[in-house]
Amino acid sequence: MDVESARQIAAALAIAFGAMAPALAIGMLASKAMEAIGRNPEASGSILTNMILALAFAEAIAIYALVVALAIKFVA
Question: 65 by DSSP, 3-state: which?
Fold first, then answer.
């Protein structure tokens, strides 16, 4: 296996694993937020605000994984 092939595989694995965890986190966050709103509809405003903030943090992890994958592919 040459260096270019190893670089391609490393970039693919970085983005694959780096996108898997945030995807699971986003699904769990949305699920629990909807469950909480179903139990207590009066608190939906604060629940949604906190959920959106948590979703942004989870999405940032996926963006970091993309940056790492691009760095592996083009810089290393």
Answer: helix
CA–CA dist 36, 38 (Å, integer):
5
Instruction: Please report where in the chains the tokens 């986003």 appear, as a residue.
Output: 26
For the record, the structure tokens of 52 come out as 């959106």
Q: How do residues 24-75 score in pLDDT, each as one tens digit? A: 999 999 999 999 999 999 999 999 999 999 999 999 999 999 999 999 999 8
CA atoms within 13 A on the CB side of 35: 6
Query: Any idea where the domains of the chain sit in the sequence?
Result: 19-74
Which 3-state string (H, E, C) describes 24-49?
HHHHHHHHHHHHHHHHCHHHHHHHHH
CATH code for the domain defined by 19-74: 1.20.20.10
